[in-house]
Amino acid sequence: MDKKIYIYANDTEVSKAIEKTLRSKLVKSGLRPYNTYSDDTELIICIGGDGTLLRLVQEFEFPKTPIVGINTGHLGFFQEILPEKIDDFIFFYNQGKYSIQGLSGVNVTVKTAGGSFRHIALNDITVRGVLTHPVHLNISINDSFIERFSGDGICVSTPAGSTAYNYALGGAIVDPRLSLLQVAPIAPMQNTAYRSFTSSVLLPGSDSLSVIPCGDFDKNLSVVYDGLMTEYKDVKELTIRLSRKKINLIRFDDYQFWEKVKSKFL
Ligand code: NAP
Ligand code: MN
Question: Could you tell me if the CB of 209 is within 6 A of ligand 1?
Fold first, then answer.
């Protein structure tokens, strides 16, 4: 029986050319690329960079279907295959010689005067002010108050997102086999009026983070999930926790997280 394969690509010239090559190679090896994604799709091939994979995950709302990435972007941390290795990929895929890396998402629930809204992200949820205003946020972990944060905002990342914005903020790189959330401060204010943690903090994957805009200040916030932003007015509370949903990335036998980190960062 046919295996249904769905190809998702960004619209750069390089990606379009790779997609064409890929389609003909798949057909030659007995695999069939389909033009639509459905419940019985067996594999999603994502052509682009990490940004493209993030778009795919948002568009298909955290699909369970295994995903493999061909890197035509700049960094390609999620992307497993180099364009010149497409033949190897098809060979190993047909042989079943690969493993699945499950990566958890992070959920945010935004309660406002106007209702309740939810987003999910693979990398990170960032909470900021609107325009360039600083924010003042009361932060609790499992209902116990931790700090009043003042500054540009906070970035709450999954282990998979630890190498993205979190890393630029001075946060730690986390092996994705760990289940945790990392909260990194963005330009925390340090003076006699305001005092916030200056390092990131880690919470167990089972804990829940509550963020309440401080009463004396603006309650309008920007919530950014994997780079997509929504502005919310009159925010009452944000609740952020690790999602039960995971995406399933295909990794071939030579994949090792720390090798990938070394090759992309050092
Ligand atoms: P983008 O330009 O596609 O992403 C920004 C850069 O981050 C790209 O080089 C991208 O790689 C890389 N990247 C994405 N996810 C990564 C991961 N898990 N590990 C390592 N690198 C990763 O912009 P976008 O589409 O809006 O992406 C949203 C992400 O950008 C957010 O989730 C946030 O983490 C990150 N971001 C970073 C900064 C910063 O570093 N100062 C600021 C804002 C947002 P590719 O080149 O392969 O696409
Ligand atoms: Mn990108």
Answer: no
Amino acid, single-letter form, for residue 247? I
Tens of pLDDT, residue by residue over 74-87, are 999 999 999 999 99
* CATH classification number, 105-245, choose in 2.60.200.30, 1.10.10.10, 3.30.565.10, 1.10.260.40: 2.60.200.30
Gap from CA of 81 to ligand 1 centroid (Å): 18
Nearest to 42 by CA among 58, 21, 77, 66: 66
Residue 50 is a catalytic residue: yes
What local confidence, expressed as pLDDT, does residue 203 receive? 97
> CATH fold of 3-96, please?
Rossmann fold (3.40.50)
C-alpha to C-alpha distance for 240 and 152, rounded to whole angstroms: 18
Please say whether the beta carbons of 211 and 137 come within 8 A: yes
How many angstroms does the Cα of residue 80 sit away from the middle of ligand 1? Answer: 16
Among residues 250, 245, 246, 251, the alpha carbon closest in space to that of 66 is found at: 250
Global pTM reads 0.96
Q: Give the pair of three-digit tokens for residue 129.
A: 């002010």
